[in-house]
Amino acid sequence: MSNGSNRPPGDSRSGRRSRAAVGAAAAATAANAMFVLSIQMLGLLTLLPSEFGAFSLQYLCFALASSISLSLICEPWLRTDVHDRVRSTWRDYSSVLVYLALGAGALTLVVSLFIPDLKIVAVSGSVAVAASTYRSGARYYLARDSKWSTILVSDLAGFLTILVVWFGLHAIPMPGLLMLSIAWTMGSVASAIMSPRPGVQGIGVVSRWVKAHMRHISPLLRDSALMDLGAIGTPFVVAPILGITGFGVYRAVSNVSAPVRLILDPLRPTLAGAPLSTHGSSRRVWTSLVLSIGFGLAAFLALEFVRVERLQLGSLTSVVAYALPTALFVSASFLGHYYFVIARTHAGGRTLLVGRIVQTICAIFFPIIGALLWGLSGAVWAYAIGTACSALAWFFLVLRAAVATRPPHRTSLTPRPVND
């Protein structure tokens, strides 16, 4: 008979370290959610739909930069580490990241100067996008190395700065959009400062990086280009169809799913780093399905609560009329995003292309046709249904790939080798 006292001391210490690592990762994930959610939720709950629509256009610039960062820097770096057993240095990684962040800021400035509603926040929004791009890329690197304490400090610095600045600016009369933009800028800069310092090299490091990682960049960038056509290009097409106020409501529906993305995005290196076969287990599949339904139900109940209590919560109040499609969208967002993250690391180029083509068709044609034929209501419902279709596509593509990696199951009928 054995008991706990017979366990080797090393096992006990290893268990404590493992629990501490899990706790640190959970704390960092929560801090990241608070940081990113704070700016999105403040906009959703305090801005009018017209203001929120304008803010969303700048935030889409950050979304584009983040997508390029994942395809050009973060995930190629991870894939070379996982598949090729070669890891690029932080100096090279951070140098390319800095140039991308500067380019993202410049793009945001140009876009903002051409849109009248954004001129007042052109400079602040550009700095926010640049700092956020660097901060998110640095966070990915740290998460892969499980440096959760550094991540936690950076995320908390950004979150607390946003709250302090936003509440402090209430003493100064100014438009809500400008107040939110300044808070976003200061919080992003604070978080970036608390991230590891970059080892900036000459611009030539970009071409060297692309050459060294081209085998992985090529399928990822192709995949991202298709994704960005739907996720970022479509809103810019829908905006003039719906008008800035209607577009604000349309984007508010998308932002209700922000907690879902914020739970999954910080865990991308961990989820993607796990063997593909683990994602095909019955337990993992059922867990993902139950969680997706749970998130959708939570969103529906929250919107129903706002309706019953007649709460006035900025742009969120306008979403109440679309509670059912919003719930469907939230559920589909979790399921699709979860399996898309896995596919980005483990799936082959053809699987990625098939999944992305399906998602791009759903993301582009569904909302645009819905907006043209039935206005705001049609755009919201089409957006939700299209997201559900693309989520199912990623779900089945990943499961198919996971099943293919399993070793053949031996049965009593399986021929056995005969020993001479």
Mean pLDDT: 87
Which outline best applies?
globular
The helix count comes to: 13
Q: Count the strands?
A: 0
In N-to-C order, the SSE pattern is HHHHHHHHHHHHH
Q: Radius of gyration, rounded?
A: 23 Å
Content-based structural category: mainly alpha
Helix fraction by DSSP (H/I, runs of at least 4): over 70%
Report the uncertain regions: 410-420
Describe it.
The protein has 420 residues and is mostly helical. The model is unreliable at 410-420 (pLDDT under 50). It starts with 8 loop residues before the first helix and ends in a 15-residue tail after the last helix. It is globular, with a radius of gyration of 23 Å. 81% of the residues lie in helices and 0% in strands. It contains 13 helices and no strands. The protein has helices spanning 9-46, 49-83, 90-114, 122-144, 148-168, 176-193, 204-255, 258-264, 268-273, 282-309, 315-319, 323-346, 349-405.
